[in-house]
């Protein structure tokens, strides 16, 4: 019941429609950044208000009355100078208010710049089946007002121009994908036209052969396996990407690998066109992540360096671990537990007293020597060692 | 013969009641969706539209005069089932057209997509209501509203109020459908 009392309060008790109270001129103007504008608020009905009591806001911020001018009892103007680019694409909100703050009229200002030549036009063909192009806006000003981009393309020596429909906006710019009837063996000419209410611009024409910009899927079936009991080597196998298995080209491959908990990758170039590779110089008993990618260099006679695919999903394997001696010489186990360390140090001091006469200060060298000694006596039962130290 | 007649209506009402329940759920879902879209849309309109206490004058356009969700309590209470449904149907058919127009004129592509997606939900709600009216034997005349031309600022203000009105309607419809459910039970 209470909720409907609330609905009663929502019922409009005022109000005038906007157009009946006051009018701002100009309506929805489109202006260049840095330009000036004189706007007028004209009271159209008898509200008992004088133009001198009104005020202006732009995007909710009150504008200084030093820029106002009362032309007559019902006309107030404002001078706006050095306009900045619009805060939102729907236009800046310029409003004329009564002294009590109520909105009397409004106008949307679109402040921007005519577009500059779109730049960084690059294209990729996925498996020679489509053509995806990216570009960036040529200037910063055109992003403040609605600017439309059209990617156009045609085959060289042909007349017909085509447009790429529905481009998408990404972080770094714009992209559009041409998926129908991609022609091979004849170059494409591609460009971007940018248009907005203040002007238009066309990018340089990019001429490309689809085969020079082919990128494939990553290699498939990447597998990493041990080589017998070799501790420092792993074997990597993969197959060429399935989509192009019927196409004769010599892909070149690249491998990268890293330790499980280290972010840096090591790369193996010059893998050639074989589909397996032996990794050497690895740490024993360690997990490695491996990825492979490929480049369809020379596809159908292309002379360009080619474009690398994405890295394959990581495959993982571990090298066989070494024997006890090797384990002992690795970094000491991160015990982090004071009780273990203290017990060990206690034993160590006992040993120092016994084996290093006149030694009041402990040195790292002695500690090292003791560690070596400890390894050598690893085969002896632990008790015996303790008895020696506690004497 | 009279026995058959007694069985049939109650069966129909059972399916109507479940249809009312799912329509109720739909209004709750759309109410939730609208809250999210409204914030994004008001940010798109720019300040002060997205400021907390901002309230521009309410325009006189069709979408915002008939029918309004706001109604006097005793009138709302006393609404007959057919009138109650008819008011809902008329409201959503007008508001759907208005939101579609909002979507069409939105310059931000992702917001446009969200609004159009929301419209399919609204369309579904309208369809549910029309289907309910048909199965209860009520007629449902629909008429299209003409759209006046207006400047961009006035369109922003209208958009602001359409979303508000839609919010009120979704809120009210939930109560409408609850009331319908009770009335059809007795």
TrEMBL record, chain B:
A single Gene Ontology CC term: extracellular space
Any GO BP: positive regulation of axon regeneration
Record's keyword annotation contains Glycoprotein: yes
Signal peptide bounds: none
UniProt keyword terms in alphabetical order: Cytokine, Glycoprotein, Secreted, Signal
Residues annotated as transmembrane: none
A molecular-function term among this protein's GO annotations: cytokine activity
Protein name: Cardiotrophin-like cytokine factor 1
